[in-house]
Specification:
Layout lengths: L19 H14 L3 H9 L14 H24 L4 H30 L2
Helix pairs in contact: 1-2, 3-4
């Protein structure tokens, strides 16, 4: 992570000691927000608003799962749009395909959730 240049007016130094586990928590909190530990402590001490945590990075497996979910949603919307014009037999077949697509979508969402919950 690159840090912005130190402000020329910031010349005073405050020394603070932490237990290793506390410092690890500070580093994690700073990394999640994309700021330095110094900036995190400064904002916390001066009661400034902290930036929101950055969203987690998505790996290629997660992106693939999202793509498949999008395809399934698109197929479902197309089936619903064609539903009005369809004959009774086509509606039965369309409903069967919709149920299969919905089940696949549920499976993909569960798999994606499992990926995102991993530490």
């Amino acid at each position: 992570m690159t840090h912005p240049p130190v402000s020329p007016t910031r010349t005073a130094v405050a020394t603070v000691r932490f237990e290793p586990s506390e410092y690890d928590r500070l580093q994690l909190a700073a990394r999640e927000r994309g700021i330095s530990v110094s900036e995190l402590i400064r904002r916390s001490a001066l009661k400034r608003d902290l930036p929101a945590a950055l969203p987690p990075r998505l790996d290629s497996e997660t992106v693939g799962q999202l793509r498949r979910i999008g395809v399934n949603l698109n197929q479902s919307v197309r089936l619903m749009a064609a539903w009005r014009r369809a004959a009774a037999e086509q509606k039965r077949e369309g409903w069967k395909r919709y149920q299969e697509s919905a089940e696949e979508l549920r499976t993909l969402v569960a798999a994606l959730a499992a990926i995102l919950v991993q530490p």
